[in-house]
Amino acid sequence: MRKIFTIAVVIALVAAFTAPAMAETKFSFNGAYRVRGFMLSNPSLQGDQAAAKATSSTPAIPVTGEGASQSWMDMRFRMESTFTVSDRLSVVTRFDALDNKRYGDPDTVGTKDNIDFDRAYMVINSDFGVFTLGRQSAGAYGTLFVDSETEGDRVRFDTTMDKWMFSVIYEKLSEGDASAPTDVMTDSDFDYYYAAATYTAEDLSAGLLAGYGADKSGSDILAYVPAAGNLAWDSTEIMFNPFVTAAFGDFGVSAEAELLFGKYREYDRDVYNASVKLADAARKAAGLGPLPDVDYDAYAWNVEGTWASGPFGAEIGYAWVKGEDNYFDDKYESVGGVGDDWGKAFILTNTDSGFEGSLGGHGGAAAAGAVAGNLASGSTAAENGMKMFYLGGSYSPLANLKVSALFANSKAESPGYIGYRTGTVPGKTRSFASDHGSEYDLTINWDIYDNLNYTFIAAFLDAGDYWQFGNPYRELENTWAFWQQIQLSF
């Protein structure tokens, strides 16, 4: 009892002494709570399958029933807080609580899914610009094309001149010298440096983001044992990301591109020469030349036109994302997918759909060495790139209600091959087909109240033969989805 009383007195004294200082700090916040419902019909795309015998280039397929469907609900509470110390100084934080916790799942206390602080940074307004230091937004610039917004540990400086903003950013992506005994490699870091110039006017926005990445996270091997796959390398990435958006009365146009150059893998042929020789020998046995250094040669672009008049709207666009289809040559040609934020086609590209890690996840994917998922990021399909045409229209019968429809057709830019991710040499196996399929989406967006929004999406994918992953005897089934979300913002 005395301990509790002592703690209470200490807290009271601290509050009394700090109250005057605390009173000068202003606090503001905003955020949202959402509930989502998912219904996915057979995201694996597996159809009713009769047994198929193995051929010289395809594995056997056992009798397989149609893939399972899925339905669930989840939730998330997100809040961003700003502590304003003065006109020049502030601290911003953001956390998620119950992030994607499904209805009916056990309590998440003690895990990052319960409460996860993902951003915390200070803002310093100087006479010549704004400094932002800490864990803050990263991975997004220009339009949503090839964006995957996340959090990054950054030091950023922005300054404005009339309608121009000039930015310089340093970001630490990996630290190799943080804690003994494992993280003791001083130079094994991944650092990225950015510079941007962005112009913003009433009917025109344009800009260029340039970046240079120095990745030495794979340059040292702490406990080195010579082996064909135990290789050390450096990577240097040069990135250019231009964009433009413009409005001309009822019409609008936007365009964005991303270009990657530099060294994807530059192997250490001195310290780790024994592994390089073993890799050369393995490649020679497979009919390949010596292990080459690998250059980046990747790019993506998107052009979109829009029209809006009264309650009606329309859009038409084309997206082209270069893909990687050969791990054994001297080029790496993928930007990693169309990005997590673009989400133009709900099933094929949206990472809130439930298909981002499951599309095409039948047994034939693993047999071909492919990773399931849609075209956003992290999957074989995303790495193989895409060529997508899309056409959409919308109608708003009420000021707070909008109904939209979209058609999209997509093909792989560089289809992979059986064994693509498992080390099989290309040319000795069957390549994937290119057709991702055609998608049809219907979206209803309803602002029930000023701070309460409801969204409903119905989507159907007429699946193409790309998802057979190189086996023409694999039976596919089309997929569809119903998705809804209600979100209260504050």
CATH uppermost class: Mainly Beta
**Major sheet size, sense and barrel closure:** 18 strands, antiparallel, barrel
**Overall residue-averaged pLDDT value:** 91
- Give a count of the beta strands, DSSP E runs of length 2 or more: 20
> What would you call the shape?
globular
Sequence stretches where pLDDT stays below 50 over 5 or more residues: 1-23
- Second-tier CATH architecture: Beta Barrel
Characterization of the model:
The chain has 490 residues and is mainly beta. The protein has a single domain, classed as Porin, CATH 2.40.160. Helices cover 10% and strands 48% of the residues. It is built from five helices and 20 strands. It has an 18-stranded antiparallel beta barrel. A hairpin with a 2-residue loop joins strand 18 and strand 19. The radius of gyration is 26 Å and the shape is globular. The two termini are 41 Å apart. The N terminus is likely disordered. Keywords: Signal. It comes from Desulfatibacillum aliphaticivorans. This is Alginate export domain-containing protein.
